[in-house]
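Hi Y.,

Following your request, here is the sequence exactly as I used it, all 563 residues.
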Amino acid sequence: MIKNLFIKNYILIDELNLDFEPGFNAIIGETGAGKSIIISAIDLALGAKVSSKDIIKKNASSASIELTIIINDSFDKNIFIENGIDIFDNEIVISREINQSSSRSRVNGVMVSVDFIRELKTRLIDIHSQHQTYTYLMPKYHIHLLDNFDKNNHNAFIKNYRELFFEYRNLIKNIQELENKSLLNQNQIDFLKFQFDEIESANIVSDDEDEKIKTRLSILENSEKLKESTYSAYSALYEDEDNIIDKLGFVKSNIQKCLSNDSYFESIYESLENVYEILRDTSFQIRNYFDNISFDEQDFNFLNERVDELNKLKRKYGPTLKDVIDNFEKFKKELNEIELKDDKINSLKNQMNIILPKLEKSSEALTQSRQNLAIRLSKLMEKALIKLELPKTKFEVKLTKTDFNELGCDNVEFMLSTNVSEDVKPLSKVASGGEISRVMLGLKTIFAHADNVDTCIFDEIDTGISGKASISVGNAINVLSQSHQVICISHQPIIMSGANNILYVFKTQEDSTKIYVKKLNEDEKVEAIAMLAGGKVNDETLKFAKELINEAKSQNKIHVGAK
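Below is the corresponding structure, written out as tokens. Let me know if you'd prefer a different format.
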């Protein structure tokens, strides 16, 4: 509910700090005093479109409005958490500052978009005036209102349907994802297979096979030089008449002779022995190399062809052989997915064939439950409208079929006819201000415990009504105010008499025009209603005002007892 409204430099208001109370808050004052300015300020804070030239007070650079709202415990606070807004004691402050070029909105100090504020408004406050769209008039909310009409018995149908629907929707999503993964036509699939086969047929040994082949080719190309050089090295080590190993053996033999006389030569001899063995082994390795090296033309040609084959693959799928192998694995995975796709899709479609009949049956049960609720709601609304002096009114809840969605397979729209000779029309197209005000009251009274909106604002609710209709409207507002905060502008003393908080708006015309608001005490409340009733305050009008107030209090007790 609205706790406080603070306005600064807005139209004719310098500064205004206004407290609202639970229950019925009435705003009264002379015609043109500025009552609707207060409602428009609330609407502006909640995201209404603005023209800075029209609303900023003369000689001021900007206008600002702050709306303090207490939210109930059942309010879904995720909308705040998702936008980084902290909530303290279930209280939020919505502020909007307007200057000549722009406006900024905040919730508890956090900058938010106008769209966010407007979404918040639909969850907090209903505003109804002759020129504004009212939440209950908007067809998109009618299905939610109908579903909330009897939660205890109806929720089981909604729950069962939603579980099946989300399972069905996930199957569709998974099928679409699989189908989208293979948007390739047959030519593209054939080309993918060709690429895969081309690399597979090459039988690549490793990602450095090409480098190893280059090394082998270099050996073959230089085989004669290598044979000549290794033979010369072997001869010098082992075969020549004056070879190195024989000389080293001579040196080793002489040192061995010295060893028998002096231990100094032990380490020298060991070193010579090691070198001798190493050189001899090395010479055998060199001999083995030149014995086996030869130019093999067949091998040389094969390796060149292999290099050409690998280079071709690297040009197409490279630049390196590792890239070629990586692409091969990629093509292999894509082909496997294509091959498995049809099996997976068929499996998911089989699951859909099992779920779909269950979903259809559940949606039919949900529709039937809604049709039953629609009949009950229509009867209750027609009874409520009779009490509101609309005895010939026909109210219907129209259900039409639609595709499967989160809410079922139904479109729901409230229909109304206030004349016997006319067919019912969408509630959003009803023109008469006096009639639509009473329809709203009727709906609000019925749905008092079903919706989540705590505050209802009615601007000029008495337009087009008088007499018995005024009494009926007053009673309906009193009923509504037992469960909701009601803020109402009216000129009808019968309606105003039920208010527990009356705010009197008046205008001064001195150096400049200014608007003020005064909270009335009990005596002032009686005088104000007397003035509304007779245009002046005297014993007769005061007596009448007191009677109206006492009657309203007694009605309130009846309503509270009925609850």
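The longest strand covers residues 394-405.

Thanks again,
Q.
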